[in-house]
Amino acid sequence: VQLVESGGGLVQFGGPLRLSCAASGIIFSIHNMGWYRQAPGKQREPVARITTTGSTNYADSVKGRFTISRDNAKNTVYLQMNSLKPEDTAVYYCNADRLAMAYWGTGTLVTVSS
Predict the structure, then answer these.
(1) Mind listing the pLDDT tens digit for each residue in 46-76?
(2) How far apart are CA 93 and CA 6, in angstroms?
(3) Which of 6, 7, 85, 93 is 20 to 30 A from 104, alpha carbon to alpha carbon?
């Protein structure tokens, strides 16, 4: 199983960025997909999740600014991030889960400059 994140980088305060996560080795459509992040010195926290049926939920800190979506034909999940803030700076990880199984990507760094 491989989850490969891309799209991270340096962005200015208030700017947008879109992360992608390409999955292989799993039946993508039957896995719930999510994004987590870990800021320096902090624990990993959930950011957004999309179920197999397309239902979404978000951390309060990103509601209204971030949008998670998935393309089952491309085995890819996206995280559109708008109105970025310095406190969004973190390594962002892609997650796939189904029943008791969970898989993780290696992360992509997002840095928001003030």
Answers:
(1) 999 999 999 999 999 999 999 999 999 999 9
(2) 10
(3) 85
Token pair listed for 14: 């208030």
Retrieve residue 24's tokens: 């292989």
Sign of CA dihedral 60, 47, 10, 113: positive
Q: Which two tokens stand for residue 97?
A: 């889960």
Question: Residue 99 corresponds to which tokens in the numbers above?
Answer: 């029943």
Tokens of 49: 């999740």
Report how far apart, in Å, the C-alpha atoms of 52 and of each of 55, 79, 98, 112, 113 are: 8, 16, 9, 31, 34
Give the confidence band of 95 by pLDDT, cuts at 50, 70, 90. Answer: very high
- The confidence band for 5, taking pLDDT boundaries of 50, 70 and 90, is very high
Residue type at position 42: K
